Amino acid sequence: MSKLTVIVFAAAIFAQDAKQIVEESQRRHRSTTQQYEGVLQVFNPNGRNSEKRWQFFRSGNYGESRALLRFVSPREVKGVALLIVNHADRASDQWMWLPELQRDRRVALQDRSTRFFGTDFSYEDLEERDVNQSDFKLIGEEAADGQACWKIESTPKKGKSSQYNRVVMWIRKDIYFPVQYEMYAKNQLVRTLHYKRVEKVSGVWSALEMEMFDVKRKGRTVLKSDKLRYNIPLKDELFTLQSLRRGE
Amino acid sequence: MKLLKLISWQYVRKHLLRTVLTMAGIVLGVAVFVGMHTANQSVLSAFTKTVDRIAGATQLQITAGESGFDEEVLERVQALPNVRVAVPVIEAVVNLNLKSQGNILVLAVDMTGDRGLRDYDLEAGDDTVIEDPLVFIAQPDSLMVTREFATANGLVSNSKITLAAMDGPRTFTVRGIMKSSGLTSAFGGNLAIMDIYAAQKVFGRGRKFDRIDLAATEGTALPELQRQLSAMLGAGFEVESPSARGKQFEALSSVYGMLANITSLFALFIGMFIIYNSFAIAVTQRRSEIGIVRALGATRGQIQALFLTESAILGLIGASFGVLFGLLIASGISASLGNFLGEIYGVAQRAAEVSSDPRLLLGALLMGVVTSVIAAWIPARAAAGVDPVQALQKGRYQQLTKGENRLRRQIASALFVIVFFCLFFAQNRIIFYSGYFLTVIAGLLLVPTVALWLSKAIRPAMKFLRPVEGTLAADSLIQSPRRTSGAVSALALSIALVISLGGMARASYNSINEWMRIALNPDMFLTATQNITDRSFRFPASFGDEIRSIPGIRRMQLVRNARLLYKGNPVMVVSVEIDKLAAESFLPSVAGDSATMYRLAAEGKGFLISDNFAQLYGVKYNELLSINTPNGTLTLPVAGIVRDYSDQKGTVLIDRKMFIRYWNDDTINIVRLYLEKNITVPEMRARIEEKLAGKTRLFILTNQDLKSYIIKITDQWFGLTYIQLAVAVLVAILGIINTLTVSITDRRRELGVLQAVGALRGQVRRTIWLEAIAIGIIGLAIGLAFGCVALYYSLEMAARDISGLRLDYTYPWSMAAGLFPVIVGAALIAALGPAEQAVRGNLVEALEYE
User: Which secondary-structure segment (H or E) carries B160?
Assistant: First the structure.
């Protein structure tokens, strides 16, 4: 066995390991349903900040789930709802309900790099991506928030589109939980995402706070979860266009 | 160069006034050319800039004419793998009723995806809504405006603006003010952005979009994507780059461009005669100088080059002034042209700045120089032919010989014979225009002869009126036909232009009045827009039912018209309930039996097309005509050709059922109402207002209102052509002044002798005045005759290449009669200055003059 073959073989084992780590991470934190009340705070670089509150419901397997997000405040957006249908093999479908117009509209998600309603998240950041849509590589071990982590790089598989050419993630070794992401577009760092207040809720490790930082515009968005619950009974009908239209 | 300095410069300095007058034709011709074309270009450029700036990163745009298309088309387009982003758009020009702001362009987009194509750079807004598309979308009263618009109207974040929506007046909230950028400068800064789904409601679009803007994924070949989209969507959809929209707008304003060309060419043509005249006289006057220079060894070529260079310089200076003057007037013309295009075609455009094309300006300079050189060609050749010996002998003026005149008559006769045969083959465009051109040449060749005949004919009358002055004036004309013929030709051409335009106007008014009498016979019209050619707002189909329920209506016709592309030309499709239309009146038939054609069209078995559509696109009766629709190509036979003046680009009438079926569009532009005998128009207006006031956007027009509006548009159209008349008459008057100035200089010695032997200053003055009046009358007589022919060709040109409208030949006798005092008065005014110049000169110098 030549030296080169050994290196290639070792790299393949490392690659497999990285994917297994990510798969295990997803498996451990999987839930059949999820519900929480969220607070979304946008801190703009010009100092003008905004806050929105919503109710969130999710059902189904990771990568193929359905989610409903209904805004409760401020007054201007109260009743606006978003239905997200994730697909394992393609980008999600999204519909929005506008109570003032009394109609639903399909959200054009073709340009997934666009900011999600003025926050520092892009539409793509909100998607649940199946593990098979990316290649993973363990690039080292590094502590994050004082915890030992695997540092894993993911790159989109050939034919899978993404605004990021690579994403580096830190996954805690003790609980297989991702705590930090760095997103690169054309090899330039564009966003960082930190998972904070990591706690076990209903037996599932969860981050009760997420902070996204947009490197270019220097804006930051914090998403806080409250009244988080997992694996509670949620009707399938809740995640339909009819339900969206009814404003349930 | 030396000769130029030695001879030409000295002459120009001595005859500065005449030089200026000679240039005037070029100045005006070039000014009109530059002014009108720059205005046209400015409006076009403003439109293109608006399109470009609104397009942002858009690479392709999908449209289906004005009718728009269903929302589901967007999903099909978005599903294509090569499409990076595809977003829907609705565009509408709305009058905001804000003081001195006129119209605003409302661009309605889907903000969730649109930021991938356009950058809405906000600079102000409420804390909760700043850069927040969610609030913008969630609140259907959201509006973003430009910084320029906000400043002009004192708007700040959360200011309210009232828009007349389809369901009545609605208050909108300014939820964003865009920083100055490329996008915000679109439509002269009068731009507002709103949510597309709110716009569907506001503008009565139902669940339709006007357009899809899209960008391809990286590495996609655009032509390939264009083909793919066209194949997927079918022939009823246009898939073009944003710049292609400029071409459609250009097609609409092409009539105006043609008018600009005709006006300026006419002015230059007339100016050419003035230059010719001046140079011909200059050569005669400078014969002795030419003789001396020739005797000193100058060649014929050098003399000819001298005069041609002189004319080129004159042309260049005149054209330069013309360019400056043209740019000055362009701003005013572009403003009126913008409004005018909005009134006629419903595509309002604001030209905030004058945009001049260097190529146009260079072309105008070249045109001025070339015109001047051509005009000076014959005099320059004559100068080169001057015999040095004869030239140095005093008193040997060149006169127009009988032989020369005979040759001109012979050539003119031969040309008339050719013109006569051209009439038989006038279907061919080249032969037709050649015939026109040869008619003009033949006519101009005959001018000196006819002018001489007329001078002799009016001599007795002039002698009778003023025995001394009249005789002197008439003899001056008879003895120097070359001096007079240029001015007479210029004047005759101007008069011919006036007559042809006057005849066209008269014929147009007659035809339009007759058409209005037949086609616009309902008692009332209901529209959703203030301007009947604007189709930004439309009634929903249910509006018809609401109106129908009002008692007192005998018949109601629902109309939906939309501009669509036919073979790349923006034509008008008018859908109407044809059976109901036929029950009230038939449009005059040009081809086909009225009853049959209306029956076939009502059954959806044929199209009715307007005469101008048939003319412009070569479509014949009974031929199959294919119109692309969002649901495929609709091919039907032409069941009939009718006289219809609805649109200058041609009209296709189809039954409303067919339109709904093929365009999926049941909205209504206009409701035509016929009332019961027992109800008056004001009573019905009151009933409609009572039922619908505040519920819907509604404009009620009486029969007379609509007719007045159409006449107003026609007036505007001819208002533009009247610029031609003013320019033509002005150039002709300048020609008379020039001729008289030359005549006085020419006859300085003669006039000096007259005064020396006791003629009074008043007699000399009257002689000049009478000469001017005689030139005016001769020019008028020839022009009126020439106008008969010019009118025929103008009507033919209008039918063939401008609007396709066939107008009846009616000679404008009243206008011809009105021209007599105008021209005589103008000639008299033109003579005032030269007459004073004649009597105030130094007598001794005058007697020395040769």
Answer: strand B160-165
